[in-house]
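Hi team,

Filling in the usual template for the complex we talked about on Friday. All components are listed, including any nucleic acid strands or ligand strings, so the model treats them as one assembly.

SUBMITTER: L.P.
PURPOSE: interface mapping
COMPONENTS: two
RESIDUES: 471
SEQUENCES:
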Amino acid sequence: MSENNKMKFHRKQLCICKPAYTGVSRLFFLFLFSFSFYLPSKKAAAQCCSAGNPSTIGFQQDKLEPNQLKLGLSYKYSFSDQYYHLDHAVAVPNVNFNRFHFTSLYFRYGIAPKLNVYGELGYFIDKSQSVSVPVNHLISGKGIGDLELNLQYALYQQENSNHQVSMTAGLKIPVGVFDQVSDGIVLPLSLQPSNGALKYNAGLIYFFKKPFSKWSFVVSGSADITTRIISRNFFYKYGNLYVSSVSGYYRNNLKTSISLQTRFEFRDKDKRENHIRVESSGGFAVYGSIKFSYRFYKLWEIQLQPELPVYKYVDGYQITNRFSLFTGVTKKFNKLPNPVKALFPPKMG
Amino acid sequence: MKQYRYFSYLFLLLAAVLSGFSCSKHSDIIPENTSNEIKIDSIIPSARDLLVWQQCSITVYARGNDLEYNWKTDHGSMVGLDSVTVIYWGCPSCIGTNTVKCTVSNSTGSVSDTIMLHVRKQ
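RESULT (copied from the run log):
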C-alpha cells in the first residue's frame, strides 16, 4: 500500500469511526451536563405516589403534519420502596412498598401545519401499597384515571426545521375513579386512581436538529397547576408540579432510534384544610432514562423506556420512586379528513 | 390565517369545557338515608394522640341487623382487623388533626359517627 493510499485508508477509517464515537460521547456528555446543571438545586418530589395519571413521557415529543393521526397504547410500571428524609434514605415502619401498573390510550392529531392536539386516557390495572399492618397486606385500587387534553402550537419554525419552538397548553380532567372503597375502607388519597381535581398545564418545547444529521435535541419545560380536590372524603390540594427535560435523540437508521433523557421535577408543598401546608410534601427529583424506538411496517413504532431516579431531595419524610418502566406502541394514520373542516366547511364562492 | 381560525375554535372549545367544570356545583354534603333501626353506641380508639407511624385500633359499637361497616379518614391509612375494628396510623404527611368516620348501614339505611385523632411529629 502506497503512502497516499495508507493516508486515504486511515481517513476512511476515521470517517467511519468518528460518527459512532461522537454519537456515544455526545449522549454521555449531554446526560452529564444536564444532570450536573441541576444538581446544586435542593428540593425534591415524590411524583411516584400521588393520585391520578403518572407522566407517560414516551409519547410527548413528536409533532404531526395536518390531518395525520397517531394512536398509541402504553403501559407503565412503577415501584417505590424508599422513604427519604431530605436527600437520604430512612427506614420506616408499616409501609413496605407502593407500585402501580398503568395503561393508557393516547392520540395526537395534526389540525393545522402549526397546531396539534393530543390527549391521553389512563387506566390503573393495579395501584397498591403493601403494608405490614397487622401482617403483610396489600391495599389496592384500580380503575380509570384522568383524561388529559392538550394543544401544541408551533410559535417559531424554520423552513428547514432546524429550530422549532412550540408551546403547549391543556388540562387534566378527573373523569375516573375517586373515593374508591376497598374492604369497607376508603382508599388513601395516594391510591385513588383519579386525581380528583382539575389540573391546568402549560409548557414550552424547543427542538433542534442539524440538516442531514442523525441527531436531534429537545429541551422542554412545563408547569402543572392543580386545583383543590373536590370530594366528600378529602379536602386537599396537591402542590403545583414543574417539570423540565433535556433529551438527545440519535436515529441510527429509518427504523431504530435511541435517546437519553434527563428529567427534573420540582413540586410545591401540598395544602390541607384551612390552607395548612403539609410539611412532608414537595421537593425535587432528577430522573435519567434511556429510550429505544423501533419502527416497523412504516407507520408503526414500539418504544421501551426504563427510568431511574438519579437524585432525590424531599421535604420532611416521603416515599420515593425506585424505578419505572414505560413501553408503548403507536400507529400513525396519514391524511385523515379534518374534523374542523367537516364541521365548518369553507364557504363556496 | 386558517390555522388561527382552527386555533380559536379549539380555544373556544377548551374554554367551554373548562367553564363547564369550574361552574358545576360540587356539594360536599351528601344526604344520608338515616335509619332509625341502627344505633351507634360509640367509636372507641385505643389512643387519640398519636405519633407518626404509631398504630391505634378503632372499634365501633353499633346495634342493628345485618350491619355493614364503612370507614374513611381524611388523612392517614387504615386496615380492617375484623368486621368492627380497624387499625389506623398516620404517615408524616398526615400530621395534624384528622377525622375518622364510620358509617354503619343495612337495608333500612345508615348511620354515621366521627372521631378526631391527632397525629404529631416523632
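MY TAKE: The first strand of chain A starts at residue 69 and ends at 80. The two ends of chain A are 75 Å apart (CA to CA).

Thanks, L.
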